[in-house]
Write a structure and sequence with these properties.
The chain is α+β, with helices and mostly antiparallel strands. The chain has three helices and ten strands; from the N terminus they run E-E-E-E-E-E-H-E-H-E-E-E-H. The relative contact order is 0.20.
């Protein structure tokens, strides 16, 4: 069954500024930012206790379905944006996933970890999963991986509300309301 409402989503390559409006229908988006914990000695305790150590990096998983006669062309378009011909693997670019949900959660620059698809005999849809993991500018070596000030996002407040707002304002209006 296909979803009856699309979630607007755009992926922006921070090294080139190029963008990709994702094709197909969204099944879901999952964003997680779990707490990091570790066991450590505590005064007055005979055993190590679990203590908070900060937050883990964001993880964003986009799941969509491609269908119809152009489904394989659409997956090729996604794959080519993910890994352009001649791309160097040693310095992958960072990306912004521009959606209402990532904007609300304050997700910054991400490494695009994979493009995976499944295809079976049961119907003509192709489920596609696009996992991303947050990256800090200090984690990267080489060009193509920062938003300018190392805070993630567009170099502003650590998020990328301006990119999302610009997209909404320059769209055909179909994304207004998200």
């Amino acid at each position: 069954m296909m979803p009856d409402q699309d979630i607007p989503a755009r992926i922006k390559n921070m090294a080139t500024g190029e963008t990709l409006d994702l094709p197909g229908n969204f099944v879901n988006i999952r964003i997680s930012n779990p707490l990091k914990t570790d066991r450590a000695d505590a005064a007055g305790k005979g055993a190590k206790v679990k203590q908070a150590q900060g937050f883990s990096d964001f993880r964003v998983d986009l799941n969509l379905e491609l269908a119809g006669k152009d489904a394989l062309k659409e997956i090729n378009k996604i794959q080519t944006f993910y890994r352009p011909e001649g791309a160097e693997l040693s310095t992958p670019p960072t990306y912004l996933v521009i959606t209402p949900e990532t904007a609300a959660m304050g997700v910054g620059e991400l490494l695009w970890m994979d493009v995976s698809m499944d295809r079976g005999n049961y119907d003509d849809t192709i489920p596609v999963t696009l996992p991303f993991e947050e990256v800090q500018a200090s984690d990267l070596a080489g060009p193509g991986g920062t938003g300018g000030d190392g805070t993630g996002g567009d170099g502003g407040d650590g998020a990328y509300g301006d990119d999302y707002t610009d997209w909404l304002l320059n769209s055909d209006g179909s994304h207004v309301g998200y």
